[in-house]
UniProtKB/TrEMBL annotation:
BP-aspect Gene Ontology terms: DNA replication
InterPro entries xrefs: DNA-dir_DNA_pol_B_CS, DNA-dir_DNA_pol_B_mt/vir, DNA/RNA_pol_sf
EC number(s) reported in the record: 2.7.7.7
Protein name: DNA-directed DNA polymerase
Reactions that this protein is recorded to catalyse: DNA(n) + a 2'-deoxyribonucleoside 5'-triphosphate = DNA(n+1) + diphosphate
Keywords, alphabetical: DNA replication, DNA-binding, DNA-directed DNA polymerase, Nucleotidyltransferase, Transferase
Domain DNA-directed DNA polymerase family B mitochondria/virus: 564-721
The organism's taxonomic lineage, starting at the top: Eukaryota, Metazoa, Spiralia, Lophotrochozoa, Mollusca
Family to which this protein belongs: Belongs to the DNA polymerase type-B family.
Superkingdom of the organism of origin: Eukaryota
Short name of any one Pfam family annotated for the protein: DNA_pol_B_2
Species this chain originates from: Lottia gigantea (Giant owl limpet)
One of the record's GO molecular function terms: nucleotide binding
Amino acid sequence: MNKFELDETLIENALFSDVIKAISDKFKTFKGQIKIDGEIVEEGNHRQYMSLLGFNGKTFHNIFSNMDKKSDASDWYFTGKIILMKDNFQEIKRSRVGRGGTDLLKKINEYEGENCYIPTNGHCFIKCVNRVLNKDLTCKFQEYINGFSKANRKGVMTCARMNEFNKKFNTSFQIYNPKNRHFHPRDVHDELDWVLYLHNSHFCLIRRSQKSLGIQEIEDNYEQVWKTCRDDNAVTQVSPLKLNVLSSMSDDALFAWDCETYSEKDTRRAIPYCCTLINLEKLRKMLNRINNLFPDLKPTDPIPEEFYDKLMNVVEIFLGTDCIDQMLKYLGQYDRKRLILISHNGSGFDNWIVLKNAKKLTHCPLKTPRGILSFPLSNPYTDEDLQKKWKRQKEIKGNYLQHINFTCSYQHESSILAAWGNSSNLPANLRKIADVDIAKYTQDNWEELRHEWEPYAKRDTLCLGACLIKYNQVTKEVVNQNMSNNLTAPSLSLKGWYYLYHYDKEMVEEECEYPRAESGRPFLPEEEKEFVKLFNKQKFRLRTAILTVWFEYPKNMFFQPIPAKDKITFTNKEGKKETGNKIRFRNGFCHDVLTSVDIQEIVKAGGRIIRILDGIVYEENFKTPPYRDYILILRDLRNKYKREGNIVGSNCMKLLGNSLYGKSIQKDIFTTRHLWNEATLQANFDSRVKTYEKINDTQYIVETEIEEKEITTEDSKSTGLTPSHLGSFVLSHSKKILNNFIHVINGFYKPEIYYTDTDSLYISSKNWKKLNRAGLAPKVKYNIVLTSDGVLKEKKTFKGYSNDKISVEDYVQLASGHDVSNEFNKPWEKSFTNGVVIPNDKQTKVFRSYLNNVKRKPPNSEGIMYPYNDKDEYSFDENYEFDDSDYLSNQEENEDCFK
């Protein structure tokens, strides 16, 4: 079967604006994918190759329909192919049986009636079976239902499996369908008095002789209620974090690596021509030897030249467009079953290069919005003698190929490699060489210019390896974890916290507003009057809750502790009208889901709680803030490392402390990715499939929704849950601390605040004395000073400012009501199909002078932006565009990592 039916149209020297309009209209209803392959030419000036793949009709229309409005396309002409690729996959309609019908905090009450039976949620099918047969088949059923493959809906009981179930267990169960009054399966050896019936995807029982009465009785008595802290099921759903903290791997199984690429002339795809690799154990021993031979050598002194040359020779180098394969062949001779290869920007670049150059994928890569965090691969070049050796070892199970995992250090240390080398106090000649122009190396000249880029490539790998060694040593000492078993710094910090300090241990009793998740219960409507009264009198503490509330800010308020979230209509990036939620600092009526700490802060600042609609109330708090001991340990260690002059240790402690919060608020993932061949994709192409990309001739990476199972085999002693409610309260308490500063300077009612973030406040120096008197010493983050020469100079570190994006003069232009435009490199395009594509042209971004008018009123004559007083008050219309405002603060990850 062919994946695509192709419909190809050739276009020659057509006006590009006409092409856009014609294609947009034609493809509005087209189902499938679109490929554009050709070039656009500006008359007498510029020629630009264009290759776009993977658009469906709707996306194509959204992107190109507004192009003619935003740019002058009348001088551009297009020549090339427009290819319509129609999917041959037919969507399979699946039964929704086994998907539960309940959410996290709800359960189904059991009901026993005269003509029906409703089991509780969870394992509903086997509960019905056990009731009819009067015996427990749960364990045997669990083995049966989990015997199916993951691709074939492992763990899900469906109507189609009923016949097979009857044969397996020698039973005669049937499912009744009231729409056609049929039973499935139709033929059974013995008709039972009870038959199965599906109500809201939940298995129930009805009497065969009273089917209509049984169905009516189910509809009358089927009830979903809130779980309480007394429900065992509820406790497991919102239980505290339970982790298997695995031991970290030794340095001899860890490698630092990097690859160099050039861009193909036509496609602009990144093609590797060199890989460099070094083993961390080998590098560590050589660095220790140098330190022993030269005990007086300062950490930042250059390594003696003879040893530096030896270090450069230790770096393995592989050349040619097959360098990835060469590296895998080299590693296949290495006597370790599991290896980890770490590159500094693996998630954004190197891992994509490996993925596109691997002959065949054996595991699905872990891709998130950050990129490919992990790319596991079974090494096809594993030495045969090593395979035989590992086969004889009983502790090694599964296949006997070497397992390599490509990961990314940028997810731990997000500074550029040069900055990481400097902050790690590396010897001067181990730090990253000043950037070379990698764009100058092409398919035609990379070999003859090897003398230029080879030292650069090797030194990059040495720098990364030395940074990894120092990072892993410090984190291993402190939290018994390192980069080998943690893909990100937040993950490492959370496991470190769990290792050092488990929050169920006994502690000194004190006041604390951090709730235990397992003590949660639903908010009761009869509690509303009492809770509103307690909040408005600021007497709800020390109770804790997360509630949906209506509240109101007074009209004279200048700064609101919690911004409003209003639904407004605006023009999106594709030039279409869109209605969505935008954050606005305004007064009047608001509503939101907030923690009890936030609600109390609203009242303390002068707001008023109007109503409480629903939410969760916690019956029990922790005896002390659960993260406090861990953070105090990190703080003390950071100070100790500072005193000792250990910059790496100090930076790592700061990183661990800052990362813990991020892991506490991560969202649950409701999709999963599979590595399927075409036949498997065709057999499982149902409504659960969200996206799929073809990565080679035989394989697809398919993203599907995670399906709830009838029976699961997860060990309740270990869960992947993170204490997200704690993250919410950590954020609330951090805002509460910052509010103390605002209260002292009366910032909620006077225009004293220029800019604020979660942990920072930008104010005039005239307020410093007030803060000092209150014991709240300010820290200078941005300052404009007048030098003795009468020159104004600026010092800045605040978010939102970036010299390569926008200058101070541009800010002045914006404040004066003028738009500012800047040219930037186009972002790199990454996909499983094409790998990394590096555009060779620029894009123009426009910063609107009115970009903040959605949040506050335009500046008055004194430059003050006062808040709106009502959700319906605006100073912009539906043509307001938000497309470029994010470029004020966002950095391009790809280029920054290579600086």
